Amino acid sequence: STLRNSMYYGLKLTNAVPLVEMNTIQNNTQAAAFLDLLSIGATFTGNTYSGNGNGNNLLLESGTLSQSRTLKEADAPYQATSSITIAGTSTIPAVLTIEPGTEIRFGSNLGLYIGSGTNLGALVAQGTPSLPILFTSTSTSTYWRGIYFDNATVDATSIMEHSIVEYGGYSSTANVTLVSSNPTVRNSTLR
Fold it and tell me: Full-prediction pTM beyond 0.85?
């Protein structure tokens, strides 16, 4: 199929996790696709992107992911529209699992927050040596806030392995900030 010339997105997903495969997505004003947080889990493979707004990225809605989801490796980078918080309830954590080879871009002053207050959250970002997970800025001339593990992080579940976190640290933060939390960070590059 061809999805083209939309005033907004070639494809908009709301609480949907379809297989999006072998399409041409072009010349859409805002982005190739937009996913709300409940659509994390959709599969994008074998598509061709050109001329879409926001650099042919797959836009991720901002807000709080309160249910566990797996962000699939895609044939285009994901881009957060604002900060994203991973936080379930005080007894049931939300876990964001990210597949090897996935790239997520954040704009200036945006971040990825794990846990919030008493609401539990976890991040499982386990890449491989040949398919690391990349967390980066939308531009090498701007910085994003980075990844922030709050005291409501589920330490036993949270891991960053074979991940690259770069161009973070906006507003006196760091690429990765740990506050009363102890996730595993192993074989990763923070630059």
Answer: yes
Strands 9-13 and 48-50: unpaired
Nearest to 187 by CA among 134, 128, 147, 143: 128
Tokens 């907004």 appear where? 8
DSSP code of residue 116? B
List the beta bridge partners of residue 136.
105
Distance CA 115, CA 25 (A): 35
C-alpha span between 93 and 72 (Å, rounded): 20
**Is the separation of the CB atoms in 187 and 161 below 8 Å?**
yes
- pLDDT, block means (10 residues), the chain with 191 residues: 97 97 97 97 97 95 96 97 97 98 96 96 98 96 95 98 96 91 98 96
Locate the DSSP E strands across 14-118: 19-21, 24-26, 31-35, 43-45, 48-50, 58-60, 63-65, 69-71, 78-80, 84-86, 94-98, 103-106, 111-114
